[in-house]
Specification:
Layout (H helix, E strand, L loop, with lengths): L6 H15 L12 H10 L5 H14 L3 H6 L2 H8 L5 H18 L8 H5 L6 H12 L8 H9 L8 H11 L5 H14 L14 H4 L6
Length: about 210
């Protein structure tokens, strides 16, 4: 059963386990530039990274820059990205944001949360991933895996992703955020799934999990 530890003690132990399991984590979405990363992250909403990586080579062979993307029609984009789901909405967002990048940002992906989140189809999580992986800015994108695990480990109340992000940023030093958020995602997929999870067999929950898990 999980021991009664402070959040600081839990954090130290969790980081130690994650560093042993995933010493050099890298984002799983294939991309060649900040722009292609932005498009890949947008496509990953309610879709697996594996599926996105099957679709983006076809899309980027046609258009890997904002100018090439707006040269396509929304319908052409939609045809390619259909396997990712929500294709009509995502295709329109991709075309519209590409136009905005050309008109307002010289064809470049902006390096600020405010400008990124002003783009169609780009929410805070997408902006955080781009800031972290494209520009190396400390960020803590919270997806369903991180939200679930932060609650299981007693690091956040789990009320919403905004609160979870705030809590995790308060607990962990900013210099490890970009690595840590990837490590937690990978751990959630491999060891700490939403269903069929046995906390006694989990390398982190067994030591640092909430008592209510057992």
């Amino acid at each position: 059963m999980g021991k009664r530890l402070t959040k600081a003690e839990k954090a130290e132990g969790i980081v130690r386990v994650l560093n042993e399991l995933y010493p050099n984590p890298e984002g799983s979405l294939q991309h060649e530039s900040p722009y292609t990363l932005l498009i890949a992250v947008l496509l990953s909403a309610q879709c697996t990274d594996v599926r996105v990586n099957q679709v983006t080579p076809v899309l980027f062979a046609k258009a890997d820059t904002p100018q090439k993307m707006v040269d396509l029609s929304v319908e052409e984009i939609e045809d390619v990205i259909r396997p990712c789901g929500l294709a009509p909405r995502k295709a329109r967002a991709i075309w519209d944001l590409s136009r905005i990048l050309l008109d307002e940002h010289c064809g470049l992906v902006p390096q600020s949360y405010e400008a990124l989140e002003a783009l169609p189809g780009v929410g805070h999580k997408t902006a955080s991933v781009v800031m972290a992986q494209a520009f190396g800015v400390p960020a803590f994108p919270v997806d369903t895996h991180i939200h679930r695990l932060a609650y299981r480990w007693g690091l956040s109340s789990g009320k919403n992703v905004v609160q979870t992000e705030r809590d995790l940023k308060r607990i962990f030093p900013s210099q490890i955020w970009n690595q840590l958020h990837l490590q937690i995602i990978f751990f959630g997929r491999e060891y700490c799934p939403a269903r069929g999870h046995d906390p006694h067999q989990c390398p982190i929950c067994n030591v640092y999990g909430r008592r209510s898990l057992f």
